[in-house]
Design a protein that fits this description.
With 123 residues, this protein is mainly α. It has one domain: Zincin-like (2-Layer Sandwich). Helices cover 50% and strands 11% of the residues. The protein has six helices and three strands, in the order H-H-E-H-E-E-H-H-H. It has a three-stranded mixed sheet. Helix 1 packs across helix 5 and helix 4 packs across helix 5. The longest helix has 19 residues. The radius of gyration is 14 Å and the shape is globular. The two termini are 25 Å apart.
C-alpha cells in the first residue's frame, strides 16, 4: 500500500479513537500533535529504540509541563511502515494496531507507566 494511503488510514483511525475518548480526555488528546512517519529516524535508533518500534511519545506528560525542561510540545510519532509490516499488510489489523499504538503513546502523555498502560489493555 502506498504511503499516502497509509497516512490517510492512520489519520482516520486516530480521529476515530479520539472521538471515542471521554470528553475530558478527548480535549487533552487533541492537543497532542500526531506525526505519521515512514520509519523511525537515526536519532530515535541512536537513543536505543529498536528499528521496528511502532510509536513513540515525546515531551512532558500532562500536568508536568512546567516541571520539565522540554521546549518542544508533546507529540506522538506513529511509524507507518513498521505498523504495516507488524500487521502483515492487512488493512484491518493495521487499523487496530494504529489505534492501540496511538492510545498506548497517548497513555504516556497522560502520565501512565507501562504497567498502567498494560492494565488498560493498551500494550
Amino acid at each position: 500500500m502506498d504511503a499516502a494511503r497509509l497516512v490517510q488510514i492512520a489519520a482516520d483511525t486516530v480521529g476515530a479513537a479520539q472521538r471515542q475518548l471521554p470528553p475530558e480526555l478527548r480535549t487533552l488528546a487533541r492537543g497532542v500533535v500526531v506525526h505519521y512517519e515512514r520509519k523511525p529516524g537515526a536519532d530515535v535508533i541512536a537513543d536505543g529504540f529498536p528499528d521496528d518500534i511502532l510509536g513513540l511519545f515525546n515531551g512532558a506528560a500532562h500536568g508536568t509541563e512546567l516541571s520539565h525542561d522540554q521546549p518542544a510540545p508533546p507529540q506522538i510519532m506513529l511509524y507507518l511502515e513498521n505498523l504495516w509490516e507488524f500487521a502483515d499488510e492487512d488493512p484491518e489489523i493495521f487499523r487496530d494496531e494504529v489505534r492501540v499504538t496511538y492510545l498506548h503513546e497517548l497513555g504516556h502523555y497522560f502520565g501512565w507507566d507501562e504497567d498502567e498502560i498494560a492494565g488498560r489493555g493498551l500494550d
